[in-house]
Amino acid sequence: MKKLITIILALVMCFGFALTAYASGEEKETTQDASTPRLMVTDFKVDSGSLKPNEKSKVTITLRNYSKTKYIKNIKLSISEESGDIKPVGTGNKFVDIIYAGGAYTWELELTASSTAGIGEHEITVSSEYEDKYYGSYSGSDVIRVNVKQTVGLDYSGVQLPVKVYPNDTTTMEIAIMNTGKSNIRNCKIDFDIKGLESGGTTFVGEIAAGEQASASANLRVGKELADTEGIVTITYEDEFGKIYKKEQKVSTTIVEKPVEPETEEEEQPKYPLWWAFLLGGIVLGGGVGCAIPIAIYNNKQRKQDELRL
Predict the structure, then answer these.
(1) 166-203 residue pLDDT tens
(2) How far apart are CA 57 and CA 88, in angstroms?
(3) Which has fewest Cβ within 10 Å: 28, 215, 262, 306?
(4) For the range 86-91, what are the long-range contacts, defined as Cβ-Cβ under 8 Å and sequence gap of 24 or more?
(5) For residue 27, what pLDDT is reported?
(6) How many CA atoms lie within 13 A of 134 on its CB side?
């Protein structure tokens, strides 16, 4: 009898445990996780460091599902830039089947910049649309900032010396610098390393806007040593991001003895200047005329008297 009661009690307890487990499982199945899974950009990289006009650059974007309990599925990724200067190669969209809770996805795509894209940082929006396991719809967006570099170009003229120069003289070099690129040039300067010629230091030009021209003048003092000489003129400048560029030009000249100018003999000046001659001539002529008039009058009067006597 005792054994039967023990068996019955054991069966009741087992049934109770089973019923409790069933109820607990049913509750788990019927309770829905209402949390919002967050898909966010955690990192990005531009392989070339920045975008350049009309060139393709690979961009790698990493996105993470920050939910600890939910996977997300049917994910659509897209990319856009407000000005339209930055464009994806292709559609700029990507479909991803699933990203598990706590998992990440790496999106690789190519971007390019237009020829008129502004220099500096551009904000690119990475958008996402997705569902959770209960078919709830979500969306999100993040911003990444990508630099755009425009072309840098410089041309110049006037970097040359005369065929020959003279000791202790000063020769002037007039240099014209043209910004032929689409990016501003900054901290432009000119240095001279020419044996036998002293420049007095660096010639600073400064900033040159895209498409503009600047000029610089350098006075070079010639040394005393007579010789053929050559050297380097270096033009250094920076782009908008501080990258340094350099152009070099060889120059040469010959330092020769300055020719001596021939001396000219001074012509002997007349003892009396010409105007004195005219003055003396005038006095003599005037005196002669003055004497001739009274004599003529006297002779005429005398002739008349002689006629009366006859």
Answers:
(1) 999 999 999 999 999 989 999 999 999 999 999 989 99
(2) 10
(3) 262
(4) 86/51, 86/111, 86/112, 86/113, 86/114, 86/117, 86/122, 86/124, 86/146, 86/148, 87/111, 87/112, 87/113, 87/114, 89/56
(5) 44
(6) 13
